Amino acid sequence: MEINTFGFNGLSDIQVMASREKYGANVLSYKKENPFLDALKKIIKEPMVILLLAAALIYFLTGKTGDGIFLSLAVLIVAAISLYQDSRSRNALEKLKDFSQPKCSVIRNGMVMDINSGDLVIGDYLIVEEGKSITADAVIVHSNDFSVNESVLTGESLAVYKDSSSDENLIFHGTTVASGLAIATVQAIGNKTRLGRIGKSLESIKEEKTPLELQINNFVKKMVMVGGMVFLAVWLINYLRFPHILDSLIKALTLAMSILPEEIPVAFTTFMALGAWRMMKMGIVVKQMKTVETLGSASVICTDKTGTLTENRMSLTKIYALQTNQISNVEGHVFDSATQ
Predict the structure, then answer these.
(1) Using CA of residue 287, residue 38, residue 55, residue 230, what is the dihedral sign?
(2) Which of the listed residues 201, 228, 243 is the one where a domain comes to its end?
(3) What is the number of domains present in the chain?
(4) What is the model's pTM?
């Protein structure tokens, strides 16, 4: 059965190739980084990990090889768990993105065909109908009782009616058709869409440390400062009493190491990794280990009501009869013309 094209021929194969060559594919692409190196840099920059590495180095210098090996192994184990968790989360998100990539209907060569949304190009005649997700920004050229839910962009759950002859003739990537059918000419794809620009703007937002991370890092930094001052004081006193630089240095380092709380970062990072591991076993994608602590410390969750806690619709639950002065519970009751 041939589907109606409403008199539109759409792009030819040559025009599609030319448009894709000029404007690119309909994909959301963000800053390019090496995921492994990026995750490794984040681990190395952590003050707690720096403290552990410094402590291990000092243990090796002072001849305490066993303690140095223990701390080095602790750092390697924590880093391995973190990198593995990051890799699992990244792969899961990639698979989820591929799975959720919708198909779309377009008019090409005078025929309606279904294609992957990533193959959509500027100039395509996109067909959208009730229940479908819109895969690009476009201008409506034909519509029939057409409305769109734009809550993903505006937060407003009420559908917006759109028509080719009105000011509301634009449809946007990521929104959902609430009713009707429309044919629209694609004007923007990928990062050039309104949703894509929002995604790009989020790249500038820096990740914030959790309250527990800030407290532990602050504590560790203070202990390092105290340890450094003790080291200098002990080294200076020993050197003035016994002018042996190496012997004084070893004694000062040994005393300073007794002050540094190297066990705290090991325990903290290990518990975070184990928490993320347990959540992963329950099928939860944990992008960052610190999410575990953040969720655990949440006491109040603020959320928008409509569409989240409510369904944006009214239903009849009780009827008050004026003549009998009674209230009847009618929730779940089906009404028809014979009983009304």
Answers:
(1) negative
(2) 201
(3) 2
(4) 0.59
Residue 289 CA to residue 61 CA, distance in Å, equals: 32
pLDDT digits (tens, 9 = 90+) for 21-39: 999 888 877 665 666 777 7
210 and 295 both lie in a single domain? yes
Residues 147, 211 within the same domain: no
Kindly report, residue by residue over 254-311, the tens digit of the pLDDT. Answer: 676 666 666 666 677 667 767 767 777 777 766 666 666 677 777 887 776 666 666 6
Residues 233 and 188 in one domain: no
Domain that holds residue 288: 206-311
Query: Which structure tokens are listed for 5?
Result: 């094209």
Distance CA 184, CA 137 (A): 9
Whether 23 maps to a domain, the answer reads no
**Statement to judge: residues 192 and 217 lie in one domain:** no
Rounded distance between C-alpha atoms, residue 176 and residue 150, angstroms: 7
